Structures are given as structure tokens and as C-alpha cells.
């Protein structure tokens, strides 16, 4: 009787221990799912498209450019076009942040030209493409052209820097108040001050205002001189303002812009 009683107690003890193990295992499984698997599932579910969509869009985006010297159009990847513009518009020896800014401006300008062409047609200068490869739009050079013009040494250094600036800003464009900037204009030097858009182009744009260029002190082409005859100057003033009987001695600078 004592032996049977002891066996029953041991059997009950083993049953209770096994039940406890199962409970602990269930709790551990729930904790593993809640702390590890569930967060991974949520990240993959809610952010997977958000992360991959811009990359897919960039890879599929193409752009058509008119090659003026060749008299034909080419179609290439947008980011390849941006790199070719940065190489055509800015020395690769410039600071990396300057190259990045140039890449963003070039990308924005290219996309804005495509948008405007879709609404109003291409320019008469290049009716078969929204963009050309000259200063009429943006200077663009292919990798093969750069290799021929710059040499292999530049390709191993300068081209790598330009590709890095383009890749690090891939997909980035300029916006103003929720809309893509239509005129992301740039220049080498402004002579100390930029100009209001309406004083150069047809319309006033809120993001193209006259401001001081405080960091142009070391710009290599800050000043430029043009010589014209007095008769040419007088003719241009009359055409612009309708002035007559201009006295050269009365001409003076009233303000600078």
C-alpha cells in the first residue's frame, strides 16, 4: 500500500511538472512572437513598399535629350543624365556638397522641362525632345565623351566624385510650397547679387528674388567688362526706354541689382 501511494504521488508530481513545462513553453512562444517576430512582420508589411517604391521609380525613369552636334535624340536613365549634366556644368574638383546641390538642381530642371513639355509641347530649338545638351537647357556629356575629353585620370577621380554626388541625392528634387520648382536656375557667379526673375524673364517667381551673394569673394569670374560704342549704347537705350537726346555726360549709375 505504501509503495502504491508513493508511485501515485510521483506520477502526480510528474504530471504537474509536465503541465508547468507546457505553460512555460507557451508563455515563451508568445513572448518571442510579440518581441521579435511581430515587429519584423509590421516593419515588412507597413514599410516595404515605402522603401522600395522610390528605388523602383528611379530605376524605371528615363529621359529624352536632343544631341545638337549629332542632330538626333537619345533616351537614357534619369540619374545617368544628371551625372552627365553635373560633369558638363561644374568642375569635379568643387566641394562634394556643391556637386550634390548641382545634382539636385539638374534633376529638378530636367523633370520640370519634361512636365512643361507634356503640357505645352517641346521647344522649337529641339522639337523632338524636352531637353537639349547645350546651354539652351543644360550642358550634358556622355561618359564616353568625358573619357575622350578629360582622359582616364579624370575618369578615375573626377567622374567617381560626380557619380557619388549623383547617387547620394538620387531621387531628390526641389519643391516650393508643395510644388516642384519650375526654374531651378544656377550660375557660376552673379557679380555680388542675384536678379529678380521679372527683370530677366517674363514672370515674377517668388523663389527667384534678388539677394546678396555673400560668398562670392573668391569667385574667379566675379567681374566682367563689355565695351560698346556710344552710338550703340544710345540706340539700345532708345529701343528699351524710348529716350531721345541722350547726353553721355548725364549718364550715371543710380542703383545696382
Task: Give an overview of the whole structure.
This protein is mainly alpha-helical and 257 residues long. It contains 6 helices and 5 strands; from the N terminus they run H-E-E-H-H-E-H-H-E-E-H. It folds into 2 domains: 61-186, no CATH class; 191-247, no CATH class. 52% of the residues lie in helices and 7% in strands. The radius of gyration is 33 Å and the shape is globular. A 3-stranded mixed β-sheet has the order 2-1-3.
Summary tags:
257 residues, mainly alpha, three-stranded mixed sheet, two-stranded antiparallel sheet, 6 helices
Percentage of helical residues? 40-55%
Count of helical segments? 6
Measure the end-to-end span.
114 Å
Q: Would you identify the regions where 5 or more consecutive residues have pLDDT less than 50? A: 36-60
Largest sheet: 3 strands, mixed
Structurally, the number of domains stands at: 2
The assigned structural class equals mainly alpha
| Series of secondary-structure elements, N-terminal to C-terminal | HEEHHEHHEEH
Radius of gyration: 33 Å
Task: Please provide the count of β strands.
Answer: 5
Could you tell me the mean pLDDT?
80
Spatial shape: globular
Estimate the strand proportion. 5-15%
Strand arrangement within the widest β-sheet reads: 2-1-3
Set out the fold topology.
Layout (H helix, E strand, L loop, with lengths): L1 H59 L1 E6 L4 E6 H12 L6 H25 L10 E2 L10 H8 L1 H17 L6 E2 L2 E2 L49 H12 L16
Parallel strand pairs: 1-3
Antiparallel strand pairs: 1-2, 4-5
Helix pairs in contact: 2-3, 2-5, 3-5, 4-5
Amino acid at each position: 500500500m505504501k509503495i502504491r501511494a508513493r508511485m501515485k504521488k510521483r506520477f502526480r508530481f510528474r504530471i504537474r511538472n509536465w503541465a508547468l513545462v507546457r505553460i512555460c513553453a507557451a508563455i515563451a512562444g508568445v513572448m518571442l512572437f510579440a518581441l521579435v517576430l511581430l515587429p519584423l512582420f509590421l516593419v515588412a508589411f507597413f514599410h516595404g513598399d515605402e522603401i522600395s517604391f522610390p528605388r523602383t521609380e528611379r530605376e524605371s525613369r528615363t529621359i529624352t535629350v536632343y544631341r545638337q552636334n549629332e542632330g538626333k535624340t537619345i533616351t537614357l536613365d534619369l540619374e545617368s543624365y544628371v551625372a552627365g549634366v553635373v560633369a558638363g556644368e561644374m568642375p569635379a574638383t568643387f566641394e562634394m556638397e556643391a556637386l550634390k546641390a548641382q545634382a539636385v538642381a539638374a534633376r529638378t530642371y530636367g523633370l520640370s522641362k519634361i512636365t512643361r513639355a507634356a503640357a505645352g509641347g517641346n521647344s522649337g530649338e529641339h522639337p523632338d525632345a524636352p531637353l537639349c545638351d547645350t546651354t539652351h537647357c543644360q550642358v550634358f556629356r556622355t561618359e564616353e565623351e568625358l573619357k575622350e575629353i578629360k582622359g582616364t585620370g579624370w575618369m578615375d577621380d573626377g567622374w567617381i566624385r560626380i557619380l557619388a554626388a549623383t547617387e547620394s541625392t538620387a531621387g531628390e528634387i526641389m519643391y516650393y510650397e508643395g510644388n516642384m520648382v519650375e526654374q531651378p536656375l544656377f550660375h557660376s557667379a552673379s557679380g555680388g547679387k542675384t536678379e529678380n526673375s521679372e527683370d530677366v524673364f517674363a514672370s515674377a517667381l517668388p523663389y527667384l528674388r534678388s539677394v546678396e551673394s555673400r560668398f562670392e569673394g573668391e569667385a574667379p569670374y566675379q567681374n566682367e567688362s563689355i565695351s560698346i560704342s556710344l552710338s550703340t549704347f544710345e540706340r539700345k537705350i532708345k529701343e528699351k526706354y524710348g529716350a531721345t537726346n541722350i547726353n553721355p555726360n548725364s549718364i550715371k549709375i543710380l542703383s545696382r541689382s
